[in-house]
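A note from the maintainers: we've had questions about how concatenated examples are separated. There is no special marker in the raw files; a new sequence line simply starts the next protein. For clarity in this README we add a label.
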Amino acid sequence: MADIGILARDAVARRLNRELFVALGSTAAVLLQIAHPLVAAGVDQHSDFRRDPFGRFHRTANTSLDAVFADTPRAQRALRRIDARHVAVRGTAEDGRRYRAQDPHLLLWVQATLVLTSLRWYELVVGRLPAEDRQRYWDEGKVFARELGVPDELFPPTIGELERYERDMLETAVVPNITSRLVARTVLHPFAVLPDAVYWPTDVIAAGLVPPSLHEAFELRWGNAERFFFRFVIHALRIWRAVAPRWLAIVPHARLYDRRVR
């Protein structure tokens, strides 16, 4: 019998994360993460995203998808790789606060951004999930966060409480500082030699997915042109899902998973 991995066979995470378009929301998730000054400090001081932005994105995406779609040993190795990378990520932020990537409160914030951004983006394109599936998606997110060191008592129990947690964090701890803005600039426009206009489409997608309170901090325009383009992208992706061949619409990890479990 095939090893289905660390999630249940009917996991909602596999339904959402198999869609290639969901990866378009990754920039918005990163912006939410680095809006937290301590996360921004860790990325600024320890990540190689400036030197190799695409390589960094590929390695991160590959590890995350392995955790969702790979067999149990490989999925566990992926989580151990993430944990091992976190060990050395510690230091002092610009405001003098100490941080470490293994801080369960920071890990919870990062996991919350991944779950909520992917969920919102998927529902905009495909349609709202039933309440039970929305809850299961968060419960599956807890599996990964728990493996990385988040204790059960920190988790908001329900998806509704997770959304409330996000709102509370954006009003308190998650207030972008100078480091957040500098890192965001590089995340949004990784190659400074290119004119800003080249990045306009991806800027619009990010602006449409992050809370409006972050638009000004990250210099994301959200006028009529941006709103119209964002709606156009959503409709285009709906058509894409209906007509695109499977090898273009589904991530390779999901195709390997399907072959393995068959």
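[label: protein 2]
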Amino acid sequence: MIRLAVRVRRADAELVLAELLELAPSGVEEVELGEEIVEYAVFGAPGELPELPDLRAAAGSALVELSTTEIADDWAERWREFHRPLVLEGALTVRPPWEPPGETAIDLVIDPGQAFGTGAHATTRLCLELMLELNGGGPFLDLGCGSGVLAVAAARLGYAPVTALDNDPASVTATAENAARNGVTVEVRRHDLRAGELPSARTVAANLLAPLLRDIAVRLPIDSGLPERMIAGGLLVGEVDEIAGAFAARGLVEAERRSRGEWAALLLVRVDS
């Protein structure tokens, strides 16, 4: 197993991450290296990793260092140690399948497979916290579903029908499998969020990076198709005001914001709801 690491300047890290996720849609590991440098790493067998020239191009002028490291044979077992159960407000547990059942009323089993995360990342956690505040019910749309954490949680919280969209085939597969694993119904489809019409739903969750959220804000319909409420995650704290303004221009205004470390999420509501 090979660990391929890209170190970049923090000021450009978000843009680099968006490019890297195009090359490695299964997700990247993020490592903090002080105030100025961020390291992103991908894992895979030789021949499965992105080409070095493609990584250099993705990092562009932000590149500080590019390195490869061979990982011990027990990496797969040690990888499991990074995926620990997440317990929120004594009401919801998100855990990988190798962990014992939680003691909360809602116990979600999420296997990341080749998709991104089991729910422990700060942005996913913030989105789940906001979802727990809302009254479940009506159609729910998860844009960029990853491993399906938000979509599966929505189904368990009483939303129906639940639709999950992602452009990554591995994410579509993982979400469908995790929905079945938890005994819930989720319609999962492959969809390019940068193009085409977005489905309408009463509640929308979009745990994405800021550039894609900006694009989605511009393409939201200003009519009856506008959601009553939307959770926008995947934001750095310094990006919240700009993204809130982009959605406000389309009729979704900020009702609440939450942050955890350098990450933040927004709850937006339709002005006439």
